[in-house]
């Protein structure tokens, strides 16, 4: 068996799209996931799409014995590290879970990598490490800020931990990929975002309304100093993100040390612009009401992705229309996500625009 890339969290939303990209690029992969926010079906879909068996171990990155076992059995030469908890709101209620999973989990993983002399790591970071940005569009070189939530602090702490690791031993090559707002799904409609429980992010909330499960969308804040009073974000297609991971891994072959890259489109859209675009593209009406600002939201945030373009040759290829079309195709083909049916959810009744 050739050199293998270990993909932690490879059954999840961004991890599954990246696993697909790696397999399509002819690479050997091993997915490690405890399925706390995903299910085996996403990997079965990948197997169908690629006509390849996906090596999978169900387990937790906090299990040091398991990590030892994996690194001793497989010829791993790089790790893509997606696993972690990602809800801002939940992190406020359960900070210990977030620090234990995201920070201690990464610490365990790095220990195991060092023990087995695997020094290439691509880490899922987030624009949240910039906190309230001092300047927009955001460039990497201006440095990080003060993240607003425990979730954000786990990402910043992990970045700092990884930077210290690189200082301690020049053999490490680490990419910090700072995603902006990932949306969309693979064009096949076979894999996509499948959040457990009630979603918090805009697109999953919006599709719940479009599917008729929730009567209206709540728009948080109408008085921000933005184009129309609602918050502006840099939405980026998950397949473009996957491609960014592939390019970052290639870049690590020839550079040591730690490197932060923004993965965003460089364009900002307001919440109202997203609603209108969704309505235009799908023909479905999205009733909404305004509510007070959501705690912790910043008015505007979008990337300057020039550094990723220069260093990696990565540019987001897919525009907002494509992001919404692909999100909607995934949703329509999988009204209950990866589950064939669910009696927890109300039946689907699409609201055609009148
Ligand atoms: P996701 O929840 O779909 O995927 C994470 C995967 O990790 C899940 O399959 C989950 O089961 C697994 N996992 C969690 N804890 C684990 C553990 N201890 N051991 C093994 N597996 C574990 O999330 P995603 O949207 O694909 O995000 C992937 C990464 O990107 C996360 O680290 C997230 O913080 C980061 N990120 C996500 C976004 C976003 O908006 N989706 C934005 C920026 C950064
Ligand atoms: C976008 C905009 C909301 C839901 C979060 C994390 C960030 C990163 C990506 C992981 C905001 C508004 C939302 C709704 C709304 N994740 N909104 N009604 O907050 O930019 O980023 O996900 O790293 O760290 O913070 O994304 O999709 O939650 O919100 O009006 O029902 O949509 O207020 O302005 P956010 P989001």
UniProtKB/TrEMBL annotation:
Catalytic activity as recorded in UniProt = UDP-alpha-D-glucose = UDP-alpha-D-galactose
Gene3D superfamilies cross-referenced by the UniProt entry: NAD(P)-binding Rossmann-like Domain, UDP-galactose 4-epimerase, domain 1
Q: What class of enzyme is it?
A: isomerase
- GO molecular function terms listed in the Swiss-Prot or TrEMBL record: UDP-glucose 4-epimerase activity
Alphabetical list of InterPro entries matching this protein: Epimerase_deHydtase (IPR001509), NAD(P)-bd_dom_sf (IPR036291), UDP_G4E (IPR005886)
Ordered alphabetically, the record's keywords are: Carbohydrate metabolism, Galactose metabolism, Isomerase, NAD
Q: In which pathway does it act?
A: Carbohydrate metabolism; galactose metabolism
Q: What EC number(s) does its UniProt record assign?
A: 5.1.3.2
Which cofactor names does the annotation list? NAD(+)
Q: Which SUPFAM superfamilies match?
A: NAD(P)-binding Rossmann-fold domains
The residues covered by the NAD-dependent epimerase/dehydratase domain are 6-264
Pfam families, from UniProt?
Epimerase (PF01370)
State how it assembles.
Answer: Homodimer.
Family membership: Belongs to the NAD(P)-dependent epimerase/dehydratase family.
Q: What is this protein called?
A: UDP-glucose 4-epimerase
Taxonomic source organism? Pseudomonas cucumis
């Amino acid at each position: 068996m050739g050199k293998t890339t270990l993909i932690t969290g490879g059954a999840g939303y961004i991890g599954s799209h990246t696993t697909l990209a790696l397999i399509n690029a002819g690479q050997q992969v091993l997915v490690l996931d405890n399925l706390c926010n995903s299910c085996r079906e996403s990997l079965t879909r990948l197997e169908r799409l690629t006509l390849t068996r996906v090596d999978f171990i169900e387990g937790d990155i906090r299990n040091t014995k398991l990590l030892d076992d994996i690194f001793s059995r497989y010829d791993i030469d790089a790790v893509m590290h997606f696993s972690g908890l990602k809800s801002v709101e939940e992190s406020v209620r359960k900070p210990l879970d977030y620090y234990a999973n995201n920070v201690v989990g990464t610490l365990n993983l790095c220990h195991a990598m060092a023990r087995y002399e695997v020094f290439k790591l691509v880490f899922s970071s987030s624009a949240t490490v910039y906190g309230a940005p001092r300047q927009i569009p955001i460039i990497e070189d201006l440095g990080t800020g003060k993240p607003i939530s425990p979730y954000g602090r786990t990402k910043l702490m992990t970045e700092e931990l990884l930077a210290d690791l690189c200082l301690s031993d020049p053999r490490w090559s680490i990419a910090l990929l700072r995603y902006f707002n990932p949306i969309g799904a693979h064009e096949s409609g076979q894999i996509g975002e499948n959040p457990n429980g009630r979603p918090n992010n805009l697109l999953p909330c919006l599709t719940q309304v479009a599917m008729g499960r929730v009567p209206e969308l709540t728009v948080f804040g109408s008085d921000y100093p933005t184009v129309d009073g609602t918050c502006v974000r840099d939405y980026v297609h998950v397949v473009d993100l996957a491609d960014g991971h592939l390019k970052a891994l290639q870049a690590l072959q020839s550079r040591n040390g730690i490197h932060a890259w923004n993965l965003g489109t460089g364009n900002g859209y307001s919440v109202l612009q997203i609603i209108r675009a969704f309505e235009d593209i799908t023909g479905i009406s999205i009733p909404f009401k305004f509510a007070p600002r959501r705690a912790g939201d910043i008015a505007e945030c979008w990337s300057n992705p020039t550094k990723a373009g220069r260093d990696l040759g990565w540019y987001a290829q897919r525009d907002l229309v494509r992001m919404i079309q692909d999100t909607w195709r995934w949703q329509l083909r999988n009204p209950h996500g990866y589950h064939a049916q669910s009696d927890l959810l109300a039946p689907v009744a699409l609201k055609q625009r009148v």
